[in-house]
Amino acid sequence: EPEVTQTPSHQVTQMGQEVILRCVPISNHLYFYWYRQILGQKVEFLVSFYNNEISEKSEIFDDQFSVERPDGSNFTLKIRSTKLEDSAMYFCASSEEGIRYGYTFGSGTRLTVV
Amino acid sequence: TQLLEQSPQFLSIQEGENLTVYCNSSSVFSSLQWYRQEPGEGPVLLVTVVTGGEVKKLKRLTFQFGDARKDSSLHITAAQPGDTGLYLCAGASGTYKYIFGTGTRLKVLA
């Protein structure tokens, strides 16, 4: 079964450093998303991406965050200057026809900012 | 702000018992999904419901979308230890995102 692949599975970084989280969505999917889940809390929407541009972003997704689809397969989330409160599981997801029929999520990247 | 409240928050039952998990909101959703999440993994889609009053069955799991499309329930018949996990409902909010519920953590004891 096709899957969304995320790397790395775990990233530890110093506060203030830049991190790039990588995702390979399912190949025929056109819509891409990033969500995060702080330990013990809800899954929160960060950003959606379609047709090489951001479709929607949340209040969490401020100027420190950016997304990119640098080639035909990868979808990345960059955090420019990490803060302690950025520590969370970050999930990439993709879908074929928008949100109507649900997403396929990756296994996540656990980001720990120290 | 749209919110999805799930109840109960935690549920621990014996194998073979039945259970129902609820997902409630004051907002109307065009569609609603249920996911299951294992520790250290991403949510896995179980079902999507789109029509008010819709009922879908997936083996021992029965999902219902409320008539007004503000609430949903998940009923598990004869629960098994393999059903253990975090169950999440998620409602479509606008065109490009879902908002997730608070989650129900289920533990089924053998």
Folded structure, characterized:
- The complex is a heterodimer of chains A (114) and B (110).
- In chain A, the strands form two sheets. In chain A, strands 2, 4, 5, 6, 9, 10 and 11 form a seven-stranded mixed β-sheet that branches. Chain A has a four-stranded antiparallel β-sheet with strand order 1-3-8-7, with no helix packed on it.
- Chain A is an all-beta fold and 114 residues long.
- The model of chain A has no long low-confidence stretch (mean pLDDT 93).
- Chain A has strands spanning 5-7, 10-13, 19-24, 31-37, 43-50, 53-57, 65-68, 75-79, 88-95, 104-105, 109-113.
- In chain B, 0% of the residues lie in helices and 55% in strands.
- Chain B has no helices and eleven strands.
- In chain B, a hairpin with a 3-residue loop joins strand 9 (85-93) and strand 10 (97-100).
- Chain B starts with a strand and ends with a strand.
- Classes of the chains: A mainly beta (114), B mainly beta (110).
- At the A-B interface, strand 4, strand 5 and strand 10 of A face strand 5, strand 9 and strand 10 of B.
The percent range for helix content of chain A is under 10%
Order of H and E elements of chain B: EEEEEEEEEEE
Strand content of chain B is: over 45%
Described by the principal axes of the CA atoms, the overall outline of chain A is globular
Helical fraction of chain B equals under 10%
Q: Number of DSSP helices of chain A?
A: 0
Strand content of chain A: over 45%
Q: State the secondary-structure class of chain B.
A: mainly beta
What's the N-to-C terminus distance of chain B? 40 Å
Number of strands of chain A: 11
Characterize the main sheet of chain B.
6 strands, mixed
Chain pair forming the biggest interface: A-B, 27 and 26 residues
Counting helices, strands and paired strands, the structural category of chain A is: mainly beta
Oligomer: heterodimer
Q: What order do the helices and strands of chain A follow?
A: EEEEEEEEEEE
Mean pLDDT reading of chain B: 94
Low-confidence stretches of chain A: none
Q: Calculate Rg of chain B over CA atoms.
A: 13 Å
Poorly predicted parts of chain B: none
